[in-house]
Design goal:
Chain lengths: 277, 658
Amino acid sequence: MIATISANPTHATPPTKLGRKVRFRIKRCEGPGKPSTWNTYTVTIDQKGANVISCLQQIAANPVTVEGTRTTPVVWDSGCLEEVCGACTMVINGKVRQSCSALIDHLAPNEGDEISLEPMSKFPVIRDLSVDRQRMFHNLARLKAWVPIDGTYALGGGPKESPEAQETRYALSTCMTCGCCLEACPQFNLETDASKWDSSFVGAQAISQARLFNMHETGKELAPARLDALMGPGGVSDCGNSQNCVKVCPKHIPLTESIAAVGRAVTLHAITKFFRG
Amino acid sequence: MAAAGNQRVIVVGGGLAGLAATVRIAESGLAVDLFSVVPVKRSHSVCAQGGINACNEVARQQGYSEYEHFDETIYGGDFLADQHPVLEMANWAPKIIDLLDRMGVPFNRTSEGYRDLRLFGGSLFKRTHFAGATTGQQLIYALDEQTRRYESEGKVTKYEFWEFLWPVIEDGRAVGIVAQDMRTMQIRAFRADAVVMATGGCGLVYGKSTNSIICTGAAAARCYQAGVHYGNPEMIQVHPTAIPGADKLRLMSESARGEGGRVWVPRKKGDMRAPRDIPDAERYYFLEERYPKYGNIVPRDIATREIFSICVDDGLGVSGENQVYLDLTHRDPDYLKRKLEGILEIYEKFAGEDPYRNPMKIFPAVHYSMGGLWTTFTPGSYNPAQARHKHKSGSPAPIDAKVGQGMQLGAINNAMTNIEGLYAFGEVNFAYHGANRLGANALLSCLFDGLFCGVSVANYVRNAAPSKAPAESLPAAAYERVTQQEEAKVKNLLSTVNQGNYDEKTNAYVIHRELGVEMTTACTVVKSDARLRQCQSKLGELKGRYANVKLGDAAGWTNQSLSFARAVGDMLLVADAIALGSLERKESRGAHYRTDYKDRDDANFMKTTLASLKPETRDVSVQFVPIDASLILPEARTYGKVAADATSAAKQPVAAGV
């Protein structure tokens, strides 16, 4: 009925075949330190616009595997369901992405197609598809990713800004701390020992946030401290330039540009420090 | 008097209101414990798209004022809100924008580098500030960053992945909470000298809505069960433009209309041509024709009812389905990309069509709770001898925007519920929006509560009851009692695991799905006595089934089914209040539209619906209490609608905001 609308062909969704059955192969784990197993479930696609979330909801209501075994409901994180909170990130058919924007019509257009779901591998698994991404927030604190304002009393407006500068900052500021860039990064590794986070590679997400705050008129007051943190072990020089991060970022943030810009700033900062002693 | 260093405030909810409160209260020198079911940066505020309203210098020089913003909000809310708090909020708005600007929010800029503005519903002036089409995300990130800064300095302690279970109330005063660690499942009490609830709306009561999956309303419902009054539960905003989906209904921001988007359907029923093949004369731009003054930017409740009526009553929906076109294809793609990229990307991703080239297909969806926990305030210094008539748009304001004319700054009862020391901020606070919220006023009310009423919390802790009897010195009994109560509930729920296999009747997910369908059908765009009574009987059935709910997971680690099943019980009670409020309010006002009482009835119902739960029977009762309408006299809310027979004549339509 809606075929009268000719969509942009590169984004066209195949027509929904309602009533088809799709298989979900899901990596399960009861908790930290427990072994992983796989369960397979069948879901009947009975609504237009079905996505991985709506299928996980269907499984949660009645979790019976293809072998007929009743299991516990699958645990996963989700929030906004419109790809703006970052919560529902997981590895779908081997690719890291948000599960809310993973449409079944794209992933499994035909009867019997299979979709695999795994938790991200660079963060400790909490249970099933849910992982602990505290390290990303820790890194934001480590890099003082904020504007050091003088408090919340009314002191007038902020600095004027050109539309070009705003557009650059806005793009960086859409980062939702989802972790896709870190999952895809060969240099960013699983680290369960929080005491080692400060000496392990921070990754594209935090580096790009350092760039964002170093660009702001007031935020740049803390630039030396940010660059100090990015000069040492785990800093920007640990980047192996694989450029995987920018390919998987759901917000199309120019992460490699950020890494390059921060890399130059760190070099300059190091030289300045050397001559000033 | 206890040393201030030992006094603590608990904030429940890490959205915009909770974070603004946290920052303000921490800044005043009190320790803050911040509880959230998700990392605060992932709170539902990220979904706000269009912008935040405030009087600004450009609009001011064209005749706009804070007072007109106040007047618009009262009129937009159909004269249900208490008026003094709204006045203060409007007066504070420009200060809030300045503060956000200092925090580094990337507001869109004019070519000269000033903050850009856009048109939004319910106003004839550009007074909406925005950061692309993800303003809420940008605002909450700024507050998240400031919170992280205070956390690094040891002033704030975050409890993320902790679920609020119940307030601890001793001698009529809130002295802490009981919460559960969602990973270890440990339940424990936390002491505090004041508790701020900033837990958002209750969209999940409707199953699918524009809300995040976490917006169950359970936290507010638990306070309500503990004795807090619930105000205007029946006032639920249905947003006119959303993208239908299997798991949720995704918002298509009002900014799409503010930037010139036009809503239309083919004039001819069953016209199956592609939209671009339908010439202008054969398109029915029904909002522009019916509301020549406001056009596509009429307030949400009006746009929603018109779209609903076009599809359901007139059968004019696109392709015979419940959907209308929201058309931006006449605008320059570069312009759209700059102003609306975030939301157009959502449409492209989830609907699989290119909105730059094809009109979007949208339909109304449950979006916002104007109602919520009932709160009080101390009126400010502006008290005219007589309420004034509605402000004439663009005329000089009767007063300036000095602080304290609407609400008294720092009065301890501002945004306090009927339980002493228990506050409600943001969407969970019933104040400000009356019977309908204007677009881009929600972010404002969240920040205003946090920043303005946060001062009230600090004053309460320092100068009122907590200064004489701080929570840390209270006997443990009250805390233990509530902890045991919550442990018993969990034990009870867990004991149902493996009691018989899957049964639709007692499955929490199925009960929730049926609740959503019922509430969406009976308690949204159009309501009637008969349908509401049917809804009440369905709710009775669902409650009966819920009493025997069976869980599918006994795990003592990250048990999401437990949290969900527990919340379903709370949602059923919110639904009860919504249904009874809808039934008893025998009039039509704002978002509440009764087919059997189509007119507004100020004599009987220009009053707050106050819902309370009878502890013995767990039944809801409502009463209607007078509002503060001492500043503006009510008048008919028409937005200049032209008579129905005049709309049939073909007109030269003018898109708003172009």
